[in-house]
Give the backbone structure.
Amino acid sequence: MMAAPDGKVKVAEERAAAQTRIIVGLDTSLAAREALQLAVRLAASVDARLKGVFVEDENLLGLADLPFAREISFSGEVRNIDPERMLRAIKAQAESARRVLARIASQAQVEWSFDIRRGRPLSVLAENMVRDDTLVIRSPGVASREIGRAVRAATRDARADVLLVSSGAGLRSSLSLPQLERQGMLLTTQGTLPGRPVAAIDEGTSGGEACSAFAEMLAARTGAPFLRLSARGQSPVDLAAAARQSGVGILVVNADWLGNDDDAVSLSAAAGCPVLLLGKDRGSHSGSAENPV
């Protein structure tokens, strides 16, 4: 009598394990909230689960334990750092981030989960990724070398995807879901601009063809135009300029096409939009609407 429920639980767990995850780091900043909204849109468009991770920065906690560490209050008072007080403040931030995740994901009807980990933020996010994951990385305030290591670990080691967001990337209008916006389900501080193109860089390989197929599917699902940018005779700088001039909302790129770890950051900043780096080999037809991820 108990076998059937156990079997159902096992099937549900296997299905959840196989489903694509969009993994995004959380904190209480406005930039993190905007990146979360973009992650929610991507999850909704490709039928993925959303996983928010709040990372307790081990460097910050280590600093609090140093005997000479001091903090300055808003009133200018200099005082010793209380590690316990700092840890309580971090826990409160984590709970605030979890509530924001729950509200935004639930409004968009996206399945979500939340986790708290400790370590170096980008390293923690990149570890334990699998082939069907997509990691959202915000580059502002993070060293290019550290971002490059995370991109390499995700796309080349785990063969997962990375959605890279640099400063000035225009998140609010990067990826719109008209059916959700009509219902007032996407929370933004400014109105979105639906219809910005989803573009792909086609460098003439099977990977570039797969990028184009995936980007075309994404554009169809979000009601946006699709734009193919041929890399023949063009440098990454040229393609970034073309994407910016065309008002591209999100740029899809074969991760193996990029030359070094810094290229992805430079491309996202120059293009003025998030860059979706595809690390997984989808083949020439796996980007179709029937099997988008």
